[in-house]
Amino acid sequence: MAKEAAVPLTRQVASHGEEKPARPSVGNIAVKCPKCKEILYNRDVEKNLKVCSRCNYHFRLTAYERIDLLADPGSFTEMDTDIISIDPLQFTAFPPSYSDQRTYTDKLTAEREKTGLKEGVITGHATIETKPLTLAIMDFHFMGGSMGSAVGEKITRAIESAITHQTPMFITTTSGGARMQEGLFSLMQLAKISAALAKLGEAHLPYIVLLTDPTTGGVSASFAMQGDITIAEPGALICFTGPRVIEQFMHIKLPEGTVNSEFALQHGMIDAITHRRDLRQTLGRILRLYA
Amino acid sequence: MAYDLEFEKPLAELEKKISALQRKGDRLKPDELVQLQEHERELRQKTEDIYKHLTTWQTVSVARHKDRPYSADYIRLMCDDFFELRGDRSFGDDHAIMAGPAKIDQQTVMLVCHQKGRDMKERQFRNLGMPHPEGYRKAQRLMKQAEKFKMPIVTLMDASGASPGLVDEERGQAEAIASSLYLMPRLRVPIISTIIGEGGSGGALAIGVADRVLMLENSIYMVAAPEAAATIMWRDSAHASYAAENMRISARELLPLGLIDEILPEPLGGAHRNYKQMTATLKEAILRNLAEVSALSTDEMLERRYQKFRKMGAFGNLEAQTLAGSI
């Protein structure tokens, strides 16, 4: 397979005119790979599509980095940029012993400032290898990619837009699951998005989903596992119950990497594991096959 | 039935006095008889008071009461016949989901229910009421069968969540729930769901995407069990009561948010104090809602079901700073 030259990831981020979102554990010059602990130059990591050159660890991408990686240059138009989360339950009481006493509203404001994003998902239209499609790209850096009403609404609108424009739907998941601070509203987003995807299916439009690290909880138990074609990045945590919850409730300790992409492939839950550098090409092939 | 919950202590004391007097039987003196009647009246009054003002965390303990009627109890009291169908036809049979055709008032419906266990042995057998993936696949098989034979679907939800073990991950817990959520919005028969105890996370919702969602007065419906939510937010399940109070999980908090359709009143002191009365209320509500939904054309019913969930959500608009969605 021809190895395409790495696409510099900063290209379109600059064109959005926004500051580059901060990433955890990324210093100015070097970064430590969380998996093999190798110290890597930022410059090299960026050049290598944010993949560790030694152990192949895939660093998490921001939504805009992901779009730059996959969409044809300049083809992306964003939709529903004005939807934001609110605090419908007035989630304000915390255990007194807990250090972080910020209300949900304060937290949202802080997350918006930290990431430069308005919510944990970016939606819109684009082309991949000239094939048009509708996308919803989640971003883990905004409150752990958790899904509340705003995320659910944006994704649902994107799916409905795919039906209107008769394009395939593509979602990249990265999420700790439902957003606890919105209570049952969050859970109902699973039903809402699933119902929209069922409509997409009735319209005979393909739904392609890319699972990235991590895809857990309510997101995994809904649109992450409803794809016609399901692809995962290598080594991504993919499970319904997050390891932290399993450990606290079942009183066991899970070995590192028990429930990941490779596990999901082995147990027949996904179609393929694709390295980041081959993603665009793979999506192009799929889009041509299902056109 | 004893008053055994923490907040029922004043009731337990009254009950003790009452039973002491009752034990005297015929030897009861006239003034003691008056006292007995006084105590009984006071007990009723206090129970009403306490249950009217339950905190969310107290509601959780009622919803999880060891004597609370489970699905099997309602089936026994409500149905003229029930034939349990088992197995998912690909892996095995799950005991936390009980399903099959049943007759309620001359009408055949497909029942799909969570079932918890009463004693230690049954709890183990039912996996504490937490379904494995094969449970959801059994539910899907039977819901499709219901569509084939044009039977309405009635579900009773009572699970703190889906089973969170490693075996469940291996068998695809996420996929099993996701498939149910994908299937239910398009099923061409009426679906009525009732939360009878705990409705916890995707594990409950997987049989709850319905035309009508009803809740017993002291049941709870939540994105994650309070313990799990506290673990996720604060890394310690000991903070569960804070999660419960914040997340608005009781029926009376959820109705104004538009997330459920109806609250079914419970007998005085909770459903476990009068199975028959509770069953009668439940049966009436199921049949009434079923009749209302059945009156719609199939396409109209499906469109309304879609719009019902489509509207759920509370979000803002950055420019206008106004609120949209269901509140």
From TrEMBL, chain A:
Keywords: ATP-binding, Cytoplasm, Fatty acid biosynthesis, Fatty acid metabolism, Lipid biosynthesis, Lipid metabolism, Metal-binding, Nucleotide-binding, Transferase, Zinc, Zinc-finger. Pfam families: Carboxyl_trans, Zn_ribbon_ACC. It comes from Dictyobacter arantiisoli. Belongs to the AccD/PCCB family. A zinc finger (C4-type) spans 33-55. Zn(2+) binds at C33, C36, C52, C55. Component of the acetyl coenzyme A carboxylase (ACC) complex. Biotin carboxylase (BC) catalyzes the carboxylation of biotin on its carrier protein (BCCP) and then the CO(2) group is transferred by the transcarboxylase to acetyl-CoA to form malonyl-CoA. This is Acetyl-coenzyme A carboxylase carboxyl transferase subunit beta.
TrEMBL record, chain B:
Its EC number is 2.1.3.15. Gene3D superfamilies: 2-enoyl-CoA Hydratase, Chain A, domain 1. It is an enzyme of class 2 (transferase). Its main location: cytoplasm. InterPro entries: Acetyl_CoA_COase_a_su, ClpP/crotonase-like_dom_sf, COA_CT_C. It catalyses: N(6)-carboxybiotinyl-L-lysyl-[protein] + acetyl-CoA = N(6)-biotinyl-L-lysyl-[protein] + malonyl-CoA. One of its GO terms (biological process) is malonyl-CoA biosynthetic process. Keywords: ATP-binding, Cytoplasm, Fatty acid biosynthesis, Fatty acid metabolism, Lipid biosynthesis, Lipid metabolism, Nucleotide-binding, Transferase. The keyword Membrane does not apply. Residues 38-292 form the CoA carboxyltransferase C-terminal domain. One of its GO terms (molecular function) is acetyl-CoA carboxylase activity. It is found in: Cytoplasm. Acetyl-CoA carboxylase is a heterohexamer composed of biotin carboxyl carrier protein (AccB), biotin carboxylase (AccC) and two subunits each of ACCase subunit alpha (AccA) and ACCase subunit beta (AccD). Belongs to the AccA family. Component of the acetyl coenzyme A carboxylase (ACC) complex. First, biotin carboxylase catalyzes the carboxylation of biotin on its carrier protein (BCCP) and then the CO(2) group is transferred by the carboxyltransferase to acetyl-CoA to form malonyl-CoA. This is Acetyl-coenzyme A carboxylase carboxyl transferase subunit alpha. The gene is accA.
